[in-house]
Write a sequence for this structure.
């Protein structure tokens, strides 16, 4: 029997309504309307120094292992050819060796079970009818501190989310490293123009504001009149409404006259074209610029960027010494010397993007310290040796000083530690601490990474 609310039956296509606007809800089994659960929000204290930002730049299918290394020397750090673009920045990053996710090592899918859990360490469902992995550390932080900025987090990439099957599992796994819930990826945006609009604003904000006000008032009247199943289902829906409200409110406010202020209050480059960039290098560089813009304007403090999807079909023929082979073919090269040399070149190209990000952030002053000084940037992949699908340790660089909480310029080798001392989730706990988001445990770890 259908639920009856206020003595009238609701149709399966329900709406939240105000006096003059309506907002369609998803299909609900209880045929009822969900309201916003109100919560108090204390005003944030006026900051006196720049906040710490976190960024993760991901590249798929690992590295050419012979050339991915770093050694500490009396004068600094020696690095292998795969890291050569980072040579000017050896004092700005640390090389981490030996960290891994045990659930990735044990998963039967060499790709789908070793990519999407990169930032969670969670088990990836092997049931093709159930999408389930784990909430990622960037989204844990976004929920804790994201309301201090216009956007809780920035989730971006170069290649679109794929829906085909691979290894008997959905390529949703291979297309997303950021997950806002166990069953829901934080879907990435690949169009630079849309990201620019998210950061800068646009559209009719007064109309948006009135729509949200009226929808909220209607929702209040029926907040306790839905089934438990629909309450959870609609919680995610109303979260998105609250995110819009928060963004509108942050965009409306004038900068405070006291305390720390962002070094940039308006974009310093023009809005990108609506279409995707015509070439991959331009696309990637623009995405790095948008991360810098988001951090510099304090529009968000958390960002992830996928330079490619897992099992990427990206063609690197634009590189002079790579003859048009797909990235996947170069990484799965059977140890052919010619293909390995091209694989190395793709590693260098990916590293060039991270080096460019560091250069931009290092040159932005935030009142005596740089944007890079006030950030934690992680550059990583899901495999070590991509040809062997080697998941027992991951290539990771950690850059920035985290507002003074990190000491870069080091080589941190955890390969000789026992399994409990090599968990990537220990690194994530340590990063979350430095972002002001302390948790007793995360993923498969309850301990922080030693020596970090």
């Amino acid at each position: 029997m259908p639920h009856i609310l206020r003595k009238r039956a609701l149709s399966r296509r329900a709406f939240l309504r105000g006096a003059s606007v309506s907002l369609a809800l998803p299909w609900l089994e209880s045929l009822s309307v969900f309201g916003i659960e109100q919560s108090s929000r204390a005003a944030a204290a006026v900051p006196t120094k720049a906040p710490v930002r976190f960024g993760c730049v991901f590249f798929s299918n690992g590295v050419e292992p012979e050339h991915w290394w770093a050694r500490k020397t009396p004068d600094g750090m020696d690095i292998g050819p795969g890291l050569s673009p980072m040579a000017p920045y050896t004092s700005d990053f640390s090389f981490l060796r030996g960290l891994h996710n045990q659930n990735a090592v044990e998963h039967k899918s060499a790709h789908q079970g070793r990519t999407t859990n990169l930032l969670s360490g969670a088990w990836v469902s092997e049931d093709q009818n159930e999408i389930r992995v784990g909430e990622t550390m960037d989204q844990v932080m976004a929920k804790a501190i994201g309301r201090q900025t216009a956007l809780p987090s920035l989730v971006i990439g170069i290649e679109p989310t794929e829906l085909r099957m691979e290894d008997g599992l959905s390529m949703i796994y291979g297309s997303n490293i950021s997950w806002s819930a166990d069953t829901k990826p934080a879907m990435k945006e690949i169009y630079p123009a849309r990201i620019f609009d998210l950061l800068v604003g646009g559209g009719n904000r007064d109309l948006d504001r009135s729509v949200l006000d009226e929808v909220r008032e209607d929702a209040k009247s029926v907040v306790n009149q839905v089934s438990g199943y629909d309450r959870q289902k609609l919680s995610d829906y109303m979260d998105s409404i609250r995110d819009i409200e928060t963004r509108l409110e942050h965009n409306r406010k004038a900068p405070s006259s006291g305390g720390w202020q962002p070094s940039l209050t308006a974009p310093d480059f023009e809005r990108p074209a609506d279409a995707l960039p015509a070439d991959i290098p331009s696309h990637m560089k623009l995405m790095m610029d948008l991360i810098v813009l988001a951090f510099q304007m304090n529009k968000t403090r958390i960002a992830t960027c996928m330079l490619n999807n897992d099992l990427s079909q990206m063609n690197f023929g634009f590189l002079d010494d790579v003859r048009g082979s797909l990235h996947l073919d170069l990484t799965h090269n059977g140890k052919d010397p010619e293909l390995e040399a091209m694989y190395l070149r793709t590693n260098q190209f990916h590293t060039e993007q991270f080096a460019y990000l560091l250069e931009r952030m290092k040159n932005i002053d935030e009142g005596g310290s740089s944007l890079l000084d006030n950030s934690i940037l992680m550059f990583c992949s899901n495999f070590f040796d991509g040809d062997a699908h080697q998941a027992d340790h991951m290539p990771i660089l950690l850059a920035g000083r985290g507002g003074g909480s990190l000491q870069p310029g080091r080589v941190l080798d955890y390969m000789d530690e026992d399994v409990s001392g090599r968990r990537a989730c220990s690194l994530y706990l340590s990063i979350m601490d430095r972002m002001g988001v302390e948790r007793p445990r995360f993923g498969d770890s309850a301990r922080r990474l030693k020596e970090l």
Summary: The chain has two domains: 1-33+204-259, 52-190+276-434. The CA atoms of residues 375 and 402 lie 5 Å apart. Confidence is low (pLDDT under 50) at residues 1-15, 17-22, 31-44, 203-207.
